[in-house]
């Protein structure tokens, strides 16, 4: 019997690499994507669909979570808050979406239980988190305990975070080694046509490519 994994797949470089790692580990992938009112929602959904096609994924879920825009409090979900473009600063960034990964993992757990999956993959990265409290080993360990406590006795879920201790340059290198279609991924927090190149996410991505002397295949403003 084949083993199944639910992959939380945003369409970004990290979650895409995590999904390719899952495939290489022999899992049948069930892909889950969340539309949560983020600024680049349409572009991320396109990336998700393209990557599912690349991976030949048959089982996929596109989940709408509208309440994040009601809460606001994040530059990703509240149009009144500008996405910062002046580099990473100490503390929790304004791009942090309250308990987003906790909510994503909870929903993905329900899908995993229904699909009888044994693992969930999430592309959290401590370097990338820049102070996000829901991207740490400690958080993932405690979520794993809570999820297994709150599901059926025959449900045994492992949350796999293959990138959590990688630097962005390591992620780029690994993605290139595995022939991940990086041209289909999207990381920009601000723009949907051409990546801005100046938000925290774009800066980290571009820096990762620069450190391994590789060229990012997506288009940036001003190129």
From TrEMBL:
It catalyses: 7-carboxy-7-carbaguanine + NH4(+) + 2 ATP = 7-cyano-7-carbaguanine + 2 AMP + 2 diphosphate + 2 H(+). Keywords: ATP-binding, Ligase, Metal-binding, Nucleotide-binding, Queuosine biosynthesis, Zinc. SUPFAM superfamilies: Adenine nucleotide alpha hydrolases-like (SSF52402). Catalyzes the ATP-dependent conversion of 7-carboxy-7-deazaguanine (CDG) to 7-cyano-7-deazaguanine (preQ(0)). Its EC number is 6.3.4.20. Belongs to the QueC family. Gene3D superfamilies: HUPs. Binds 1 zinc ion per subunit. InterPro entries: QueC, Rossmann-like_a/b/a_fold. One of its GO terms (biological process) is tRNA queuosine(34) biosynthetic process. Zn(2+) binds at residues 188, 196, 199, 202. This is 7-cyano-7-deazaguanine synthase. One of its GO terms (molecular function) is zinc ion binding. PANTHER family: 7-CYANO-7-DEAZAGUANINE SYNTHASE (PTHR42914). The keyword Plastid does not apply. Its cofactor is Zn(2+). Pathway: Purine metabolism; 7-cyano-7-deazaguanine biosynthesis. The keyword Metal-binding applies. ATP binds at residues 9-19. The lineage of its organism: Bacteria, Pseudomonadati, Campylobacterota, Epsilonproteobacteria, Campylobacterales.
